[in-house]
Amino acid sequence: MVRIGNIDLGDFPLILSPMDDVTDLPFRQLCKRHGADVLISEFIASEALIRDVEKSRRKMLFADFERPIGIQVFGNNEEALLQCLDVVAAVQPDFIDINWGCPVRKVAGKGAGSGMLRDIPKLVGITAALVKHSQLPVTVKTRLGYDANDKPIVSLAERLQDVGVAAISIHGRTKTQMYGGEADWTLIGETKANPRLHIPVFGNGDITTPQQAMEARKKYGVDGILIGRGAIGNPWIFEQTKALMSSNTNHSTSLDSITVAEKVAVCREHLLAEVDFKGERQAIFEMRKHYGAYFRGLFDFKRFRIPLVTATTLPEVLDILEQIATHYSKEHNISSQTS
């Protein structure tokens, strides 16, 4: 049984990886209903939390059925991070996750996120102070290292364990790789295989199918897997992965087996939840990045994609979604009749 502190995560948790402007409350809840075991908030700046910025506080909102859930914070100032832990603790998540992995310039360029991988002693020192201060379990999400010549993750995981971190999630790229190239799981596997390491090790990077998740579990022995971009437009990946693992075969349902009607229904559900949470204007704008993923691979989808990403009102978007369902239902019926 995998645990973070006293929190039971099951035998092999599938975790929704935190993604800025993606893993908000509506999207997390959608993934939870489709099988995600553990949820983590979007990352939140420690300085914004202690300044009581409304947008950042809203990122901490969650419902009880989302548990177990972690709130992820980032920063490079120890005092600000210590103060923000009290703000986070007040909303009573199950654990607090420290982001030492984000590679984007606005974060890493200021020495936070994976920018901290250039100063491992400072990273470990701040983490130790946070663990000592926190009443909740503290976990860390990080990367292999800063660049191709600096990948200290095996020893870093040991040091983080030694200062009290309850679990570590490792993305199989360096900071300088950003999201390019392929994730390298080799060092994730070596970290897990380290006989001195006893905390859970969760792997992350390029898991976009249930088969990839099963292969990573078997080959690298990790205690659980984070799924990030593979869940965008595809919340079914969690339940499909569980079905594959429980069947103990190499075959599972794929996204291709989800009907267009099902995709439209879930996309519509997602949209309406975003409208309830953020208001119509913001929700319609932010959902535009999801449509291509929901309907990826559909023949001649361009005729609908452009109207979807230019529509400005909820009725317009709902009408286009209905058109998609009707159009592809007719295409399927024609194909069935001629096959």
Estimated share of beta-strand residues: 5-15%
Instruction: Determine the structural class based on helices, strands and strand pairing.
Output: alpha/beta
Radius of gyration, in angstroms, nearest whole number: 21 Å
General form:
globular
Examine the coordinates and then state which fold CATH places here, giving the name of the CATH topology of the largest domain. TIM Barrel
Which range best describes the helical content: under 10%, 10-25%, 25-40%, 40-55%, 55-70% or over 70%? 40-55%
The tally of beta strands, per DSSP, is 11
Distance between the termini: 48 Å
Number of helices in the DSSP assignment: 14
How many domain regions?
2
Q: What's the architecture of the largest domain, going by CATH?
A: Alpha-Beta Barrel
Order of helices and strands: EEEHEEHHEHEHHEHEHEHEHHHHH
CATH superfamily of the largest domain: Aldolase class I
Uncertain residue ranges:
333-339
Which class of the largest domain in CATH terms? Alpha Beta
Task: Characterize the structure shown.
By secondary structure, the protein is α/β, with parallel strands linked by helices. The chain folds into two domains: 3-249, Aldolase class I (TIM Barrel); 259-338, Non-ribosomal Peptide Synthetase Peptidyl Carrier Protein, Chain A (Orthogonal Bundle). It is built from 14 helices and eleven strands. The chain has helices at residues 25-33, 46-50, 54-58, 78-89, 105-108, 120-133, 153-162, 186-193, 210-220, 237-247, 260-278, 280-294, 302-310, 314-338; strands at 3-4, 7-8, 14-16, 39-40, 44-45, 69-74, 95-100, 138-143, 167-171, 201-204, 224-227. Strands 3, 4, 5, 6, 7, 8, 9, 10 and 11 form a nine-stranded parallel sheet that branches. It is globular and about 60 Å long. 44% of the residues are buried.
